[in-house]
Amino acid sequence: MNLKEFSELLGLSPTTVSRALGGYPEVKEDTRRRVHEAALQHGYRPNRRAAALATGRAMAIGHVIPISLNHEMVNPVFADFIAGAGEIYAAAGYDMTMSVVPDGEELRVHRQMALTGSVDGVIVHAPRENDPRIPMLQEFGIPFVVHGRVPDTELTYNFVDVDNARAFRRATDLLLDLGHRRIALVNGLQHMDFARRRRQGYLAALDARGAPITSDLQVSAEMSERMGFLAAQRMLALPAPPTAFLVSSLIMAIGVRRAIHDAGLEMGRDISVVTHDDMLGYLANGDEVPLFTATRSSVRAAGRRCAEILLGRIPNPDAPPDQEVWESELVLGASTGPAP
Amino acid sequence: MNLKEFSELLGLSPTTVSRALGGYPEVKEDTRRRVHEAALQHGYRPNRRAAALATGRAMAIGHVIPISLNHEMVNPVFADFIAGAGEIYAAAGYDMTMSVVPDGEELRVHRQMALTGSVDGVIVHAPRENDPRIPMLQEFGIPFVVHGRVPDTELTYNFVDVDNARAFRRATDLLLDLGHRRIALVNGLQHMDFARRRRQGYLAALDARGAPITSDLQVSAEMSERMGFLAAQRMLALPAPPTAFLVSSLIMAIGVRRAIHDAGLEMGRDISVVTHDDMLGYLANGDEVPLFTATRSSVRAAGRRCAEILLGRIPNPDAPPDQEVWESELVLGASTGPAP
DNA sequence: CGGCGCAGCCAAAGCGGTTTGGCTGTCCGC
DNA sequence: GCGGACAGCCAAACCGCTTTGGCTGCGCCG
To answer: Contact at 8 Å (CB) between A158 and A170?
Structure first.
């Protein structure tokens, strides 16, 4: 059933029906009600594609989520981010179009989204050093929000980011305060901006206290349980093993915990662990007492906020950029204690 | 830049340009090359919305992913399923439109997708008992594929499912063979079809061997680490604690493992664990030797297959239904041993 | 040499909405 | 009694593409 048929059914013109449904004031309240009822009864809904074409707005937001080539893995934080953003889109009547693309092909897909007008805006996930997507999107003039930041570029775009450097500096300071000196960093892949910043915070804290900095105690890897396990296992076998781990994600931290157990040690007594916690739904960090001492920031809330900002930009794209750097909480859990 | 402008630029008619780009044979090879080059150079790409309207095909597939009301959690298997499906869509030039909706609102969203013609087909996630989505989609005549099945309905639709009953029956048999009698089931929510079937398999195996069946040893909960932990913790404190756990997801199993450790027991020696493993990218089940003995089936492969089937139905929707029930592997890991 | 077939291009009619710019009729004020 | 304002409806022009159904001109055959 299309608008023409439906309006004939009602004995009205397409114009009036469209306006009645669209909530415009030019139709009598009586007529509007009649139209609404008939729409419900006959199951008429305006065709989205046609409406998109006519209005020039697609009522859709694009997400391009990268999937790592090596291990074919998609970062589990996306699910929660998407859930957050999805809430906002649903409330505003927007769709979310998603592409899952291999690392490195994001540029092409973003370009296509911009060029074909299939979306009104995009979210940039997982920004990297010198990320080419940002200048490209700016050139195309399509609204976008970055989840994270890019180093060494002019910050003329919208973004929501956690203060990763500060979070990991504070976490490192905590471990130093507890007397730890050999503190290991189990980080995400180094070309990711968040990993770089976390490492900066870690190094800055060690440096400020004159604690030793070794490459032995720094690992960058994909954020899987397995990589956390392997990294910790290797480090625990060193002649001078670390007494504390600083880990970039809860899922890696679970791997680290496993390595600690396997080595016959006890987490929180023999070895301390601080992790970043994205507050994923299916991976709560304990109950009242957090399992892990953690720097904590909800990735789902970030998803919500990115979506809000993006939708806000669509009507007026030339407003000054919205930029938010979130402080993460540092919560004390059962995984840290004084250095042995 | 639109088709009209672009074709004027080339001194050709819109028709010819459209055909050249579309790969139709009515244009000279020479002209086609010229058009392609110009398109690349001027960054022209046909507007997807307009193309969708003209062809009647949206070139998009809808996914509606439910998010549990209680704990606001989105099942982590979706990320991997989506990644698999996304591969197929990308190769076929399809988009994926996703809605994240609270439990129970899926019906409304599916209806809207069907009615507004914003997608050419949909994937039904997480089917439940008497799921109203299936008859509704059938009535609307929009192609769809169910990831899973629904009990007690005529199986006249397309689906890809794991043989959950058989997988858990085999797993239970394994534990019984090892001498275990008090075997606990830590399952997903009971209204989910897969959870129901797994329970059936578990009960059938116990029943066949005359092993005791107690409600004390059966839990249905959301599949988070926390719920796995709490369930196992509670059961281990029973007067007659289980000697083995059968768990519905690796993430829950990690919680179970934690509870076992906390109780001062060792997994694989004091307590056995068998889990279902969806083979999520970031949660590999160990290396050469699996960490957990597991029934194993790749949810990502299921995503790929569902997408393939769905795309195949779009050209001929009236073909007999594609139905696949996958056998899952039973892999032996370090988490099982003879009953103490 | 006339006619037919075909390669190669084009004009125009959709697809299903939204929106601009009327048009009618009623009501009110002077 | 007349003019203007306004409520309420409608016709028609888009939006940007695809696709049907020509049209032209050339080559080939009888």
So the answer is: no
Tell me the per-residue pLDDT of B257-296, one tens digit each, with 9 for 90 and over: 999 999 999 999 999 999 999 999 889 998 788 999 999 9
The C-alpha atoms of residue A253 and residue A127 are separated, in whole angstroms, by: 23
- Whether B49 sits inside 8 A of A47 (CB atoms) is no
**Which chain A residue's Cα is nearest to B115?**
A45
Given this model, what pLDDT does residue A32 score? 94
Cβ of residue A48 lies below 7 Å from strand C: no
Interface of A with B in 200-229 (CB under 8 A): 222-226
Residues forming beta bridges with residue A64, ordered by sequence position: A99, A124
Gyration radius from chain A CA atoms = 25
Nucleic strand C near CB of residue A55 (< 7 Å): yes
Contacts of A6 (CB under 8 A, 6+ apart): A17, A38, A39, A42, A44
Strand, helix or coil at B47? coil
Contacts of A86 in chain B (CB under 8 A): 98-101
The mean pLDDT value of chain A amounts to 94
Is any Cβ of chain A less than 8 angstroms from the Cβ of B43? Answer: yes
- Among A282, A285, A287, A288, most B C-beta atoms within 10 A, so best to mutate, is A282
Whether B190 and chain A come into contact, CB under 8 Å, resolves to no
Q: Please identify residues in chain A, positions 53-72, with a C-beta within 7 angstroms of any atom of strand D.
A: 53-54, 56
**Per-residue model confidence (pLDDT) at position A154:** 73
Q: How far apart are CA A120 and CA A94, in angstroms?
A: 10
Set of chain B residues whose Cβ sits within 8 Å of the Cβ of A280: 76
Q: Give A43→chain B minimum CA distance, Å.
A: 8
Which class for A112: exposed (0-12), middle (13-18), buried (19 or more C-beta within 10 A)? middle
CA B10 to CA A43: how far, in whole Å?
45
Taking the C1' atom of every nucleotide in all shown strands and the CA of A53, the nearest one is: D15
What pTM was computed for the model? 0.93
Q: With beta carbons under 8 A apart, name residues in chain A contacting B225.
A: 282-284
Which of the nucleotides lies closest to B10 (Cα–C1')?
C9
